Amino acid sequence: MKISLLILTTAVALSAQDFTDLHIEKVSGGYQFLEGPVWSKEGGYLLFSDVPASKVLKIDSDGIKTFRTPSGKTNGNTIDTQGRVLSCESEGRRVVRQDKKGNWEVLADKWEGKRLNAPNDIVVRKDGHIYFTDPAFGSQADKRELDFYGVYHIPPKGPMELVAKPKGRPNGLAFSPKGNLLYVANTDDRNIVAYDVDKNGKTSNERVLIANIDGPPDGIRVDEKGNLWITCRGVAVYTAEGKFLHMIELAEPPANCAFGDGDMETLYITARTSLYRVRVGVKGSVQH
Questions:
Q1: pTM of this structure
Q2: Which of 21, 35, 195, 258 is the most exposed place for a label (fewest CB within 10 A)?
Q3: Could you list the mean pLDDT of each consecutive 10-residue stretch along the chain, which spans 288 residues?
Q4: Whole-angstrom Cα distance, residue 217 to residue 201?
């Protein structure tokens, strides 16, 4: 598939960012529903999911190719400091990790003997602590064995832990630049919840950081300044204190985003049938 570029320009002024222009490029289109972008700094490529097609795709200097199919209708992806890919299989109802030899291992598929709902998004802190969300959307809810939606923690050593059972469905999640704060998007309540995270990966002090988001929040990324980039009606940018800065408008409603390229100053955005990118002039956080 050839990469096509459709350049759209929008002028913005972000009070906490030194931006004057954002040039949005449509990288590629014609997909069913895109999600789960993550940039590999080691490999210099982007992975993203076409969920209904059960494919994870890879884009690099050679173009776009299939990375994994069938993917268990993978939604969220991330990459740890060892370069291993971790994915949330919504149809497979499990969290998996690929080793350097290309083999996939199951990290989580049950909680207290019952199958997970539909793991959605995932993040790994620098020290190997893994967190993922487990909501259920649409027909996924018909297959639920658990009577709650969950946010989970998989420590480097020891059993998986349940972090939270929110009333609404948890979705995207991300770490602050220092890795001491975990942000979780609550799609139904249209807010972002923050947790303090200690050196052992334990969470505490749950609170709503951002309320009344314009559109159901989905994926989250954080830049080096601590600002949050949240996909909702567009891509909403907030300060670490929860102050709204700007809404980036797109031709399609976005589902997720990820910082990438060699300098980590390009924001890749998965938006329904298309993949977009925009140079933002600020580096993404090193925490995935």
A1: 0.92
A2: 21
A3: 40 46 94 98 96 98 96 97 96 94 95 97 97 93 92 96 95 97 97 97 97 98 97 97 95 97 97 97 83
A4: 24
